[in-house]
Amino acid sequence: MKKIVAISTLIFALVFFTSCKESKPKTIVKPAERELPNIVFILSDDQAWTDYGFMGHKHIETPNIDKLANESLTFTRGYVPTSLCSPSLASIITGVYPRNHLVLGNDRVLPGDDKNGKPAWQSPWRDENYKSVIENFKKLNTLPKMLKEKGYLSFQTGKWWIGNHKNGGFDYGMTHGDAERGGRHGDYGLEIGRKGMDTLYSYIDLALKKKKPFFMWYAPFLPHSPHNPPDSLIQKYLPKAPSEYVARYWAMCEWFDQTCGDLMDYIDKKGQTENTLFVYVCDNGWVQNENDGKYNPISKRSPYDYGLRTPIMYKWKGKIASKRDTISLTSSLDMVPTVLGLLAMEQPKNLDGVDVLNEAAFKSRQTIFGEIYAHDFDTVENSLFYRMAITEPYKLILPDEVNKPNEKIQLYDIYKDPYEKINLAKEHPEIVVNLKNKIQKSWNTTTN
Fold first, then answer.
1. Which GO MF terms are attached to this record (predicted)?
2. What sections of 71-187 are H helices per DSSP?
């Protein structure tokens, strides 16, 4: 009997310890042991937040970006901090406000500069004035520089305003930045998409050959003017548009979408889709005039949502759950900290955004901010036009008292009034004061 009891006890003990062992959770793979994802930033250029199929446009067809939106964590209430390409792109790559990276506009002027009736970019002193901007930028931490810690190869294609691609920490790139050869805002980089995708494909092939994870900056000169899309697309939109100018712009949006499809198809062809993080944003908005090729002043360079708002998407198949978020506010400044968070990398203290996948940090942020400067800029003080505070549901537009002395403060309920038609500043002075104080507090913590 004792033997039976002993044997029973032994069997029980074995079953107990075996079951305990099996009930433990599977070993969690440390971030450093995971396969590092490729990272692809897709950046539209001069496109309104409304001008996508998935955002409800009645005529513009963007099937590839629509598919990306459906497969991503997609924020439809994304914002860039400023509505002009050079400072906006600089904020995307650094994760800080223009007042901190000091790329305030597209061209730098100094007091006493004689334009002789020409815009700054056509003047001989433009490149000389911009050298100090480039030298300061080279000292900043950029995403390509940070990713070197993890062994990434980084590639630049498309728009790039800060001289040679190496100034941003890229290993390879299309932009030489030589002023003597027309290097103002992208030079050869501006050919990507418009003249094919072969250079981009060769960069991807190089990374795969070297067995390195890669960071790809795809910022084509699309749908940016000149609006000269393939004739087939123009003919498609002419019967639907109110004018040829609008038809051409709509066609450019679809042309850009086609190149995005080409890029994603190539990555899929190489078997890299499941190991690639795609991030989408537009640098600034655009509203096409019906009667000429120019943009409406309520869009690009303005403090309004037609200039600042953009969908922002994060897709990593199997790692980031797809979701359409139509409420939460996010910023292009969040792109760098979100990438670093996914790679379990240390977050530099000077970043102005948050990791959108860090639920506590994301939900605790109540306000995002923006700032608009002169296209031809000098210093922050001399060039500041507007500052903005954006919350749920209000947005405050605060004109600079010195540089915009005759303009009124504007307050909009951007959830009920997304096209900013009704100024509520007089009706809600307490909200104006509260948001003004938040703007000032944000500026008091500036790093420069």
1. arylsulfatase activity; metal ion binding
2. 85-94, 98-101, 126-138, 143-147
Q: Is residue 348 part of a domain?
A: yes
395, HSE (Cβ side, Cα atoms, 13 Å): 29
3-class SS of residue 252: helix
Both tokens of 187, joined, read 């030079």
Number of domains in the chain: 1
Whole-angstrom Cα distance, residue 168 to residue 274? 27
- For residue 276 the two structure tokens come to 């690639």
3-state DSSP assignment of residue 65: helix
Q: Residue length, the chain? A: 448
Distance CA 248, CA 223 (A): 10
What pLDDT digit, counting tens, does each position of 391-412 carry? 999 999 999 999 999 999 999 9
β partners of residue 40:
216, 278
pLDDT band at 121 (very low <50, low <70, confident <90, very high): confident
Question: Which residue is associated with the tokens 């250079």?
Answer: 199
CA 147, 149, 153 angle in degrees (round to 5)?
A: 50
* CA gap 150, 130 in Å, rounded: 32
What mean pLDDT do residues 207-234 have? 98
Residue 193 inside a domain? The answer is yes
For position 12, what pLDDT does the model report?
A: 38
Residue range 148-157, pLDDT digits in tens: 999 999 999 9
Counting beta carbons within 10 angstroms of the beta carbon of residue 247, is it exposed (0 to 12), middle (13 to 18) or buried (19 or more)? buried
pLDDT tops 70 at residue 53: yes
Residue 224 lies in a domain: yes
What mean pLDDT do residues 76-103 have? 98
Does 231 map to a domain? yes
The 10s digit of each residue's pLDDT in 66-86 is: 999 999 999 999 999 999 999
Domain that holds residue 135: 34-365
| Beta bridge mates, 386 | 372, 399
CATH of the domain at 175: 3.40.720.10
